[in-house]
């Protein structure tokens, strides 16, 4: 059996939106047929119809997202992004890499496959919103890929349970923007804290000003702290995501933060 990296748009979420649309339209139909004429009927019909339109729109959007992210589908955006990030991680023999927010293990496993003489650790809190993602899934995917130089454990991206300068590289994909925080730049610094002097980082996320503040100022700050070759690479210019996709998928601002400590 092959690896199952799931989908960044969970199938259950798509089904929930579709179910909401069906219920809303049935409610609107029931109101129109069963309720007597009057203000209450018009209000309830309007509310049910509005809910039906909303859920229908979200259902279509989530289905298109599911198709785009499908690892085995035509677009395979997730696979392209994971492979792309892993390509930026080059580890020395016996080196160590941390993948923050490993989800189903895709990025950690991709890095481990590219660096067979190194060791990769993937951490995640595996919250209820992604109930199908868990440690057992990650370990099963590693076995399916024939990868033995990777391990997984539960962890908190805001307070990493690792000493300073533990890893030769750190990586992450679409994690920090999901963490409720007024200062996501501080979470980035918490990740970089665990990076050895001379170590490299490749962090992909939605680095929009609304989520992170001014990332160009942050890049300047890292350089002033002594980091080298720091770059913020737009990934919505066709690198991994097309401009047209970034807009409707809510991925505008996606970029890869790279550099060396």
Any idea how many domains? 2
**Elements, N to C (H/E):** HHHEHEHEEHEHHEHE
| Average pLDDT figure | 95
Strand % is: 15-25%
Query: Judging by the overall fold, what is the CATH architecture of the largest domain?
Result: 3-Layer(aba) Sandwich
Tally of extended strands? 7
Q: At the third CATH level, what is the topology name of the largest domain?
A: Rossmann fold
Overall shape: elongated
Within the largest sheet, what's the order of strands? 3-2-1-4-5-7-6
Sheet with the most strands, sense and barrel status: 7 strands, mixed
What's the CATH H-level superfamily name of the largest domain? Vaccinia Virus protein VP39
Helix content: 40-55%
CATH class of the largest domain: Alpha Beta
User: How many helices does DSSP assign?
Assistant: 9
Residue stretches low in confidence (pLDDT < 50, at least 5 long) are none
Helix/strand class: alpha/beta
End-to-end separation: 40 Å
Rg result: 22 Å
What is the element layout, followed by pairings?
Blueprint: H1 11-34, H2 39-69, H3 77-86, E1 96-100, H4 106-114, E2 119-124, H5 135-145, E3 150-154, E4 167-173, H6 184-193, E5 195-206, H7 209-212, H8 215-224, E6 228-234, H9 243-249, E7 254-260
Helix pairs in contact: 1-2, 3-4
Explain the overall architecture.
This protein has helices at 11-34, 39-69, 77-86, 106-114, 135-145, 184-193, 209-212, 215-224, 243-249; strands at residues 96-100, 119-124, 150-154, 167-173, 195-206, 228-234, 254-260. The chain is 44% helix and 19% strand. With 261 residues, the protein is of the alpha/beta class. The protein has 2 domains: 11-69; 77-260, Rossmann fold (3-Layer(aba) Sandwich). Helix 4 (106-114) links the parallel strand 1 and strand 2 (119-124). The protein has 9 helices and 7 strands. A 7-stranded mixed β-sheet has the order 3-2-1-4-5-7-6, with helices on both faces. Helix 1 (11-34) runs antiparallel to helix 2 (39-69) and helix 3 (77-86) crosses helix 4 (106-114).
